[in-house]
Amino acid sequence: MAFKATAGRVLALNSDSGNADNESGQASLRISHAGISAGMHPGRHDSPVREADGDDRRVHRVPAGALIANARQVTVITDGEREKIGELLGIAGFTAADMRVNIEVALDDVPTMVDGLPGISHIPTGSKLRFRNGLILQAEHPLFPCAHTGKRIADKHDAAGERLKAADFIAASLAELRVDDERRKYSRRGLAMSVLTTGSAVNFTGSVAVGDEFTLEPPQEWYIRLRT
Q: Among the residues of 49-208, which ranges form H helices?
């Protein structure tokens, strides 16, 4: 299932460094083929490759410790998806940084790959964010909610008098929809992406800034056939 190419722009950025000073957002991020500089999860999401863990053994059927391609160097979400999660949590001013998502974007034409769930979370693998400065990010897989991030959100917003649990974030991030006469849960937390090219042949480091414009492109038909 494809979608039409559409223009978009960057609304907010967050390196996910674990530093509270970054939670209000950053004006720009440096991105290399290792992912985002000063990003979280050293050795896991800041490298072209990483060691397989228990999840990879179950999903990819590879031995623990094997080096595999890193498919989650950058995370992206639309403003609509972020707003919906914040609405379901009842948090005013909820941000992408609260969810440890790196880039929040606005799209001129938001794709709906799953009926009732508009956004970027389920665009096909191989779709691209093509920035004017040459940086290209490639879609890999939906970003699913985790209890660790849920606890971080609950701890932060409990201080504002809101009684939340880690499970509340997981529930707000998952949409239960009927597809093909079956009830299924789909994530709206955003998308994991890899760095296809930084757009620089000099130092292999590119950048993205708030306000940067890009084109969201579907994968070519031959690529879709190859993957299905």
A: 54-59, 79-89, 147-158, 166-173
SS3 category, 8:
strand
Looking at the chain, list the stretches that DSSP marks H as alpha helix, in order from N- to C-terminal side.
Answer: 54-59, 79-89, 147-158, 166-173, 221-227
Domain boundaries, the chain: 6-35+71-227
Return d(Cα 49, Cα 68) in angstroms, integer.
5
Instruction: Return the SS3 of 27.
Output: coil
CATH 1.20.58.340 is held by the domain 6-35+71-227: no
In angstroms, the CA 76 to CA 214 distance is 13
Mean pLDDT per 10-residue section of the chain, whose length is 228 residues: 89 75 73 73 59 67 78 90 94 91 96 90 94 93 90 79 85 84 87 87 79 94 54
CA 55 to centroid of chain Cα atoms: 18
Q: Which residues lie below 8 Å from residue 24, measured CB to CB, with a gap of 6+? A: 97
For residue 177, what are its two tokens? 């929809």
> Distance between CA atoms of 98 and 63, rounded to whole angstroms?
33
